[in-house]
Each structure stands twice: as structure tokens, then as C-alpha cells.
Design brief:
The termini are far apart. The radius of gyration is 12 Å and the shape is elongated. Helix 2 runs antiparallel to helix 3. By secondary structure, it is mainly alpha-helical.
Amino acid sequence: MPGPPAVQADQFAQQDTDPRAGIDEAVAGLDDLAALPLSEHVDRFEAVHTELTVALSTIDKV
């Protein structure tokens, strides 16, 4: 089972959504981590890190 698709930071920056939703979505990306092979963990962590970085960059909207 592949992880979530790679996400461009620009894609999130242009969305006019609630940053809290982005944080919840990013953390949800770790829900099935235990079911993934270890070789896929790094990619998943990197995707979540990117999503959290984008959400935190818009923290003034929270």
C-alpha cells in the first residue's frame, strides 16, 4: 500500500482553508504507519513533515 501522494508546498499555500484541517490531515497520514513496511516510513514522515510545515506557516490564520 503506497503512502499519500507527494504534495507540493505551493499547493497548500494557495488554498484558503482552515490550517487546523491541514494539521489534522497531516497527522492522519501516520494512522496506518504500523501496517507499512519500514522502507516506506521515511517517505510517509517526509510527506507529513511537509504538510505540517505548510500548516504552521499559516498559523496566523488559526
